[in-house]
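hey so u asked for the seq, here:
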Amino acid sequence: MSKGLPEEAFEQLENLNYLYLANNQLTVAPKFLPGTLISADFAANNLTKIYELTFGHKPNLRSVYLHNNKLEDSGLPESMFNGSSNVEVLIMSSNFLKYVPKNLPQALYKLHLKNNKLEKIPKGAFSELSGLRELYLQNNKLTNEGMDNETFWKLSSLEYLDLSSNNLSHIPSGLPRNIVLLHLEKNAIKTIDKDVLTQIKNLEYLLLHNNKIKANGIDPLAFHGLKKLHTVHLYNNQLDRIPNGLPRRVKTLMLLHNQISEINRNDFAYTYFMDDLNLSYNKITSSKINREAFRKLRLLKSLDLSGNNLYTLPYGFPKNLLSLKLKVNEISSIPRGTLSGMSKLQELYLSNNRLKVSSIHSESWRDLTSLKILDMASNQLMAIPYDLPRSLEYLYLQNNKITTVPEDAFDSTPNIKGIYLRFNKIAFNAVKESTFQRLKYLQVLDIEGNFEFSDPLKNGDNSDEEIEDEEEGEQDVEEK
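ran it, structure tokens below
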């Protein structure tokens, strides 16, 4: 008997269509439910047993919700869905199942089995599910030995397959051609072989992050012919270089958190359609980025090189970039011409570097006529950069060594909305109200956390010699 639920509770309800008993304390399912049932929700109980007539012999039954219970394989009768072949949605996530249930309804289009203890998919478990479109198997204990080349092959309508957070050592063979989104992240996959993906002609999203893939473990023809594949996640792997044979039509490529140390001339020579490239938190140095490496990426909108070993701004950025992220590097200079021609750039992130005003070429901002966000927080700036773009709306300069705010500091940026100067070394009398009164669009002015001394030079950390050195350096850069 279910805890608090008599066996005959539903016998007289001959017209019952929808039964909602979720979030209770039932330990076993009712032995009998009316044949008129369309949907049954037993989620978030303590169920350990299902009976043959709980869900069996109900031709109108369309959806069954059994997630967040305590079901084991022994608690499921093999005939659980006999006479209920029209069930379309079956949710059995977060139980204790070791095997995929047998004799699943042939009409299923959505099957959730995530967060179980699945070790094996029995032969033929999915062979009758030709209409299944979504299959969720993540967070189990599946291995390649627990399935064979025909495990998924008969799922001819399958569009979404999630095998993430299992124990796979390689991509399963025999995946159906209609998969659109394939989740394989958080496994122990080391290789991508030549023919394992190429038959999935409709593949658009391939998620392989958090595995153990090395560049030489990816066959150069692994993505051959995948004309619809536009999003590839390979972050948190063991790549030591840009893989060969990248999908030609990839638009979003996530390669962050690997061991990549260089970008060669032809690494992106055939990925003409890419618009989002993330190479952050690798081991790339400025001298190891070929000046022509990005020459074919004319559609690239976002490039992230944060968290690398860059010591100067490299040359060769794509001219159509909208967002460029170079945070958390060792960048100490912006040489002449490194930002030239980038008239579409809207966001430039340079925080947590080693920039000084004297190491920024005087014409660096000249072509950035669309720039709205400039983030130079946590650098070594002793002054506010000058001749900033007129289009600028948000300027982040917190955590620097700025001592004064000249009255004309923002004359070139009349459209600015936010100025962030928190945690610098600005003295109380080193800022005039008139400096900001002319900025009619200004909404945020953050100058908290500065030193409120009467004389910035006497009481600040910057000596006269330091200021003079800074000014001399500025002249040197201009002359160059």
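DSSP finds four helices and 19 strands in the chain. The longest helix spans residues 464-479.
lmk if thats what u needed
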